[in-house]
Amino acid sequence: MSSPAETGPPQYVITAENLTKRYGDVAAVDGISFSVPAGEAFGLLGPNGAGKSTTMKMIGAVSQRTSGSLSIMGLDPDLNGPEVRAHLGVVPQQDNLDEELKVRDNLLVYGRYFGLPMSYLRPKADELLEFAQLTDKAKSKVDALSGGMKRRLTIARSLINEPRILLLDEPTTGLDPQARHILWDRLFRLKEQGVTLILTTHYMDEAEQLCDRLIVVDKGRIMAEGSPANLIREYSTREVLELRFGSERNASIGAELEGIGERVETLPDRVLIYAHDGEAALEEVSGRGLRPVTSLVRRSSLEDVFLRLTGRSLVD
Amino acid sequence: MSAGTTSHSDTEAARNRKFGPLYSRNVRAVVARGLMATRSSNWMVMLSGFFEPVLYLIAMGVGLGAIVGTVQGPGGGEISYAAYIAPALLAVSAMNGAVYDSTWNVFFKMNFSKLYQGMLYTSLGPLDVAMGEIFLALLRGLMYATGFTAVMGLMGLLTTPWAILMIPAAVLIAFGFASFGMGITSFMKTFQQMDWINFIMLPMFLFSATFYPLSVYPEYIQWFIQAMPLWHGVDLLRQISVGAFSPATAIHVGYYLVMIALGMLLTTGRLRKLFLK
After folding, report:
1. Looking at this predicted complex, what is its ipTM?
2. What are chain A's domains?
3. Which helix (H) or strand (E) holds B30?
4. What chain B residue is nearest to A56 in terms of C-alpha separation?
């Protein structure tokens, strides 16, 4: 990892200022500002409908902003759509592979959309099939692939133009745990190669695993910004005690837990006690004569940050 | 790094504002994709498109023609019934092929396979995609027209070298329908709406003087039929098939040139609205 310190101020590949997108009266993205230096893995974290995908579309130069400014590699995507997109790789939320073409042809044809010559594309396609662990599927039909394979092919396809910036919209939604880990590993490798990753997710563990820095968005606005560790430190305690008293009692018991830990959060299905020491908090709960059905002490996560910031849970 | 400060990039930006986000001069990538997809999966559909007018020609021209005998052609001369309806069937097949390619095909790729969504995340602009798809439709139209004209020749229905011009004329007809069809498809949201297209196409096929002359209609219906695009195609190809040209020939060609221009204008406008929002 090279430090940008000796080369002066960091070189930003994306700069957004007061970026806004309205659909009629509704502001999907409501004046957000952020900058992403080259080589960073930058996350947009938020629930469905927070404006993540809309932001991604504006960065991807397929949706025009209503107001504010946006610069991708020094270019305005509204004015230089094709040039901007030439620098980008895009992994959309839903796979949109070309089902009428075979696996390897998907890569070749996609490369031609960028105007790249076949002499470059043939070896590049083979290299990317290798990277996506799909070499033995080169001549398969797309619909014969598993969900994880399709996702990897979509990522391989997005790399055909050697993008400087890779946009990943919910990259692992719908994948089983093993397929997710394979995918994360591939994304780590890309990051090591210096590709800037921009990803949206509503999975906390994914954001914590992959992102150097992230913004928490809700209702089109930025609620917080920082590294996962800093956000947790700033907005949550070290540990969390999760208690379940049964769905009838969770709500009423909140008052009886008052004063334990730093903060008590009552959810429909459980009660969360934010404390530096979870075990100590649990002893205190027992000391007050309260008997939860289940209890669990865990480390704070981005989920807690989100809950603290918005008062709502992230997962649907 | 900062763009748009020199006068050079200002003029470039001004030019780009017009078509930059819409077009990247790479229509051939879309065409190449279409050919590759055809090779691997679509050829059955293509074959049926070729046989349809041939089957009509055999059933109606040869079968029905046996009891009809000869009829008066565009130049005033007597021609066989098969020779009378063959150019009309060619015009119909040019229309059907172009409309299928620019409506159902585009509708599916736009809303279901999300093919265009993927394309538009690359350097391609919507205009590249639209022109590529129209080009593919015309290429297919050209193949059908060539094949059908060859069949006409084998059946002894061609009597003049002018008839070879039916091929480019059929492509012209296809272009008119394809450019318009794509613009119209961009408004469609559901399958029910798509069915309206068939609702318009079928009567147009049956009543555009395809199987009998326009003169069988009362005058006000004649005017109505003559306002429809297919009639111009039918009459144009019928004239070319016997080499009997008249001022109406120019009107027919002009009708399609205007249709192409308006269709492209509509399609481009719609693409701008749909994809640059």
Report:
1. 0.82
2. 5-227 (3.40.50.300), 237-299 (3.30.70.920)
3. helix B27-37
4. B121
